[in-house]
Description:
The structure holds two protein chains of two kinds. Helices cover 31% and strands 14% of the residues of chain A. By secondary structure, chain A is an alpha+beta fold. The radius of gyration of chain A is 19 Å and the shape is globular. Chain B is α+β, with helices and mostly antiparallel strands. Among the domains of chain B are: 5-50, 2-Layer Sandwich (Uridine Diphospho-n-acetylenolpyruvylglucosamine Reductase, domain 2); 225-324, CO dehydrogenase flavoprotein, C-terminal domain (Enolase-like, domain 1, 2-Layer Sandwich), CATH 3.30.390. In chain B, the strands form three sheets. Chain B has a five-stranded antiparallel β-sheet with strand order 4-5-8-6-7. In chain B, helix 11 (285-295) packs across helix 12. The model of chain B has no long low-confidence stretch (mean pLDDT 97). Chains A and B meet through helix 1, strand 4, helix 4 and helix 5 of A and strand 1, helix 1, helix 2, strand 3 and helix 6 of B.
Amino acid sequence: MARTSVTALALQLSAGAPAKATTPAPRYETATFVLNVNGEDRRLTVEPRVTLLDALRDRLGLTGTKKGCDQGTCGACTVVVNGRRIDSCLTLAVMHEGDRLTTIEGLAKGEQLHPLQAAFIKHDAFQCGYCTPGQIMSCVGMANEGHAINRGTVREQMSGNICRCGCYPHIVDAILEWKGSS
Amino acid sequence: MNPFRYARVDSAPAAIAAALYEDRAQFVAGGTNILDLMKIYVEQPSLLVDINRLPISKVERRGDLVHIGALARMSDVAANDAVRQAFPMVAIALEQSASPQLRNMASMGGNLLQRTRCAYFRDPATPCNKRAPGSGCGAIGGENRMEAVLGTSEHCIATHASDVAVPLMALNAVVHVAGPLGDRDVSLSDFYRLPATTPHIETVLAHGELLTGISVPALPYASRSTYLKVRDRAQYEFALASAAVALDLAGGTIRQARVALGGVATIPWRSREAERVLAGALATRATFERAAEAALLGARGYGKNDFKIALAKRTLVRALEMVAT
């Protein structure tokens, strides 16, 4: 199916197209656009129904971002968009043309870990590790939100990230040390 | 999720034109509700109209009201100084909703229009008059612990899930609507429809109409207000019962009050009955208990949610005590 610019339809409509579609909707229409991920422009052709999470993992090979519940409940898919943390499973890739995305792969500088990654290792803040990228990205986003940082606020502000292994005390320790040292 | 087409627009007229293009077109803003429902085939739009680039995300004081753009994100509204000063209960309700990630995504307009969390609504294998009109209600006689006790009908007992709509209802907020036939303002008290015999029709919005903003009267005494949410865990959970309360106090006497309940009704539930009991009465526990009785007078339990009647009363009494002291 031919690619359609995401704005073409709207332009066509606002120019006074007929009130009802005269041809059936193409079943597998795709959109081509650029996603800026970790400072790099990545060109992508996907159906509109592809979530940002699936685009990152399956199309761009960035599998650090995890799929847990796929319904906005667990936070494993957390990424940072324009400085704000979001759940990448409940948004479409095509909605993020022009945004600045940061995933867990974008934190380390070469072999040098981000201090929060180092703090997670030091404090043994994971067991299976599946929720860890989401925990860390959520925490990076939290740091931009201006909350007072103490044990209580961290527990509250990290409530969108579930850890089935139950590593919460160590996760909070890691975050507190990171915020204390930064 | 089923295939659909996608159009991005940058003005309200373009959004409305695009939505009118197909009868199964829907707007998408944050996406946190509709994409979730599309994944489980409860929503199956043929066209999604992305309105995120419309210039309707400002939050600002305008004279004696606070204007909240429909695309303002929940987290931005919660952090806004004008909102926090004028009506703390709005900020508290937002801060106690969902998770930080979802609050960064979800728009205020989408919050008001979110669909119920009723488990039968969310499961196409079960009957639900809201999802499939005429199929029956699985919740009546079923697993109804989370369902409503106020505003129900024999066709639907699904709870309205929004927190922030509860204080907005108490404040008599007005929503601004743009549509094919022009713009109109609708008081929130006229915006939601009780389920009655048509639970699939939830608001007065017609197809193609777009919610563009919310005006919230800065009721002077709403600076003395709170939102109390009771739930199964401390964070990231829907309300079992909640209360938004603002009190105009003179000494120990209540001059006026605003009261609305959440988690227990099919729409955000303003209780003018409770407000009438409170107006002119002494701010005592006995008064608060009478107000709570009045608020729940018409409540009906469906078995597993019977506890919500007592819980809602206690929640309201506690909220009133918090604001009065």
